[in-house]
Write a structure and sequence with these properties.
about 300 residues; alpha/beta; Rossmann fold; 7 helices
Length: about 300
């Protein structure tokens, strides 16, 4: 088992091999390279939900996505869920179902589909090659296609929020600066600034979250781990300072001192239940405070 401990992927000194790593394969659908053999992933059923694999129109190529929503009449607010570097694997699908149970339409686009599916891969260098093909411009285009599709659905009420994890945590900040449709976004342990020269994702000439703070259209909540080996305290401090300097009220950066990178990912060794639970509630509160409060679906009646 390889534990992902940094946003850019684990380094050799981070590797921890478990004799029981193969047991993780029983958790079908989870990212193989980050799965802990000791993990007990949260499993959310689909009772009272409609889940589907959709394909959205896109100028370049059709965009696949996982969608979970209440199985009930009416319109519900939309949360776009941006994956980690592992793509739309079972953990991300479960996050979508958790949100749908609360009364959201949760949509997770497959941003890496043009280059492959990183979830089944064990070699992180191979995963990196796939992820590096998804440029910031492409990702923003995919989000635009997702918004366009959602606006046309009879079950969506056009109140939009976005949350992202790891790689997707940075996307949350970039999307808030790009789209006026989002009323709130939440980024979980997303890299705030450009990686070092030669590092993963460092080659692309693009802006990063700390660069776009003045352009944020909606409040962003950043959730970080104090023991993240790839995002030092100086980076989160700088992000906080940038928010203050730009007078971005409603945005904030929260650091959990004892949490590592990936602390919400319940299939990883770095999962921190206390931080994950608190962060989840802060996310929901952030959405609700900014006008994306879930519509409570009708109670599910037991089948006779």
């Amino acid at each position: 088992m390889v534990s992902l401990t940094r946003p850019e992927g684990s380094q050799p000194q981070d590797f921890h091999l478990s004799r029981r790593w193969i047991a993780g394969l029983f958790f079908a659908g989870f990212a193989v390279s980050a799965l802990s053999a000791q993990a007990e992933p949260i499993v959310t059923d689909s009772v009272g939900l409609i889940t589907s694999e959709e394909t959205f129109p896109h100028p370049e190529s059709p965009l696949p996505a996982y969608v979970a929503r209440p199985d009930a009449k009416g319109r519900y607010p939309v949360v776009i869920v941006v994956s980690e570097v592992f793509g739309v694997h079972e953990y991300i699908r479960d996050v979508c179902r958790r949100l749908a149970k609360l009364g959201y339409v949760a949509i997770s686009p497959a941003f890496f589909h043009r280059a492959g599916d990183p979830a089944p891969l064990k070699d992180f260098k191979a995963i990196q090659k796939i992820v590096e093909t998804a440029t910031n411009a492409q990702v923003m285009g995919d989000i635009a296609a997702t918004l366009d599709w959602a606006k046309q659905q009879s079950f969506a009420d056009k109140r939009f929020a976005l949350t992202g994890f790891c790689w997707g945590g940075s996307v949350a900040w970039m999307a808030s600066a790009q789209f006026k449709e989002f009323k709130a976004t939440v980024g979980w342990y997303g890299r705030p600034s450009k990686p070092a020269a030669g590092g993963f994702l460092g080659a692309e000439d693009r802006q990063w979250p700390i660069d776009v703070v003045p352009q944020l259209h909606a409040p962003v909540l950043g959730l970080y781990g104090g023991k993240d080996r790839g995002i030092p305290q100086t980076d989160t401090d700088a992000l906080k300072a940038a928010l203050v300097a730009a007078r971005k009220k409603g945005s904030d950066v929260i650091v959990y001192p004892e949490a590592q990178h990936g602390f919400h990912a319940d299939y990883r060794e770095t999962y921190n239940q206390a931080a994950a639970t608190d962060g989840w509630q802060r996310m929901l509160d952030h959405f609700a405070k900014n006008g994306v409060k879930p519509r409570t679906p009708p109670a599910v009646k037991p089948k006779p």
